[in-house]
Each structure stands twice: as C-alpha cells, then as structure tokens.
Write a structure and sequence with these properties.
By secondary structure, the protein is α/β, with parallel strands linked by helices. Helix content is about 45%, strand content about 15%.
Length: about 120
C-alpha cells in the first residue's frame, strides 16, 4: 500500500534526494476549483486593500489555478487594484489590461467559495 511505501526510510531518502536535485511537479487543480475567469490567468496585485491582505488575495487566486506576477506585462490578464494604485495600474491601462477592484474581487471569491460548497454537498 501507499502507507507502506512512505513508511520505508529508503523511499523517503530517494524522494528527498530528488527534491534536493530540483525535481518539481505541476500543481494539480481540483476539478471543483476550476473557474474560467481565474484558472490559468495571470494576475498582478497593486495598491492597498480594506478587507483583504495582499498575501490572502494571492493565495486565493493561486488556489483556483491563477498565476500571480509582480509586474504588469502584455501577458497579464487582470490587475487587482486597491487604493493608491500606482505605476502598475498606469501600465495596465496603457496595455488595455482588464482590472478588478476589491469589491468585485470579493464578490467573485465569495461566488467561487459558494460554488465549491455546492459541489461538495
């Protein structure tokens, strides 16, 4: 069984060795966490937020299969905009990239969580 495999010290050593050599594996997205507006899209977060912390936003987006980048480029799909957004918003506007403000993001995340609960019922 799989439990027996992981109980073997030698197997754990081999796994650790592979990881130390840089072995990586793709993130697996649960089917019920797929959302076409988020999954596979690239987001950039800018500005300050009232109800959400930046790391919470990043974690939520990544949970649904999004990539969160540190700077805006033509590969960016959405910019999450808080108050006092600066050059990232300016660049997004120049490139014609869609943006989403905190209330819209909060609503979207709530809908996703509600859908997830419905799927698990």
């Amino acid at each position: 069984s799989i439990l027996d495999f992981f109980a073997e010290e030698h197997n754990l050593q081999v796994i650790q060795e592979l990881l130390s050599l840089g072995l990586t594996y793709p993130a697996i997205i649960a089917e019920n966490l797929y959302h076409p507006q988020i999954t596979g899209k690239t987001f950039v977060i800018t500005g300050s937020f009232v109800n959400l912390k930046r790391d919470e936003i990043k974690a939520e987006l990544e949970e649904y299969g999004a990539k969160v980048a540190g700077s805006v480029s033509k590969k960016t799909d959405y910019v999450i905009v808080g108050s006092d957004a600066g050059s990232k918003l300016t660049k997004a506007n120049e490139l014609g990239i869609k943006f989403m403000e905190e209330p819209e993001l909060t609503l979207l995340l709530a809908e996703l969580k509600n859908d997830e609960r419905s799927d698990n019922s």
